[in-house]
Amino acid sequence: MAVPKRRTSRARQGKRRSHQHLTPIQVQYCGQCNEPVLPHRVCTNCGFYQGREVVEIVEEK
User: Fold this and answer.
1) What is the pLDDT of residue 27?
2) How far apart are CA 50 and CA 42, in angstroms?
3) How far is CA 61 from CA 40, 46, 58, in A?
4) What is the pLDDT along the chain (61 residues), one digit of tens a residue?
5) Which among 5, 10, 27, 37 has most CB atoms closer than 10 A?
6) Which residue, 57, 5, 2, 6, is CA-closest to 32?
7) Considering only CA atoms, which of 48, 26, 46 is closest in space to residue 38?
8) Alpha-helical segments (H) within the chain
């Protein structure tokens, strides 16, 4: 069974893991109500997507 001869240094370990970082979530703002919305999703606040109403939001009384 293969066993490493030397211990892996922190620098070499960090170089190997440098591409495993998380990318931040991209947040866009709705053109109608300026609420934060994930890209390519219908706005949950007003129901608009790309300038047109896709979902009719029913207001609760």
Assistant:
1) 93
2) 8
3) 30, 16, 9
4) 899 999 999 999 999 999 999 999 999 999 889 999 999 999 988 999 988 888 888 877 7
5) 37
6) 57
7) 26
8) 10-16
